[in-house]
Amino acid sequence: MKIAKVGSIIEFKEGLTGVVEKVNENSVIVDLTYMENFRELDLDRRTVVNHKNYKIVKESFS
Fold it and tell me: From the CB of residue 11, how many other CB atoms can be counted at a distance below 10 Å?
């Protein structure tokens, strides 16, 4: 299992995407405002996703 880095774009829960803001031991904190339809979905700005429950869409190169 590859772990995302800060700045990586990840996908989780059947199509939600976001930018990783912080990497914890077992999870990442994700900023969901990256999605174009963020306001329409009425979601919280951030969420926590376990490392087992996402795939990396775009790597961070920082």
Answer: 15
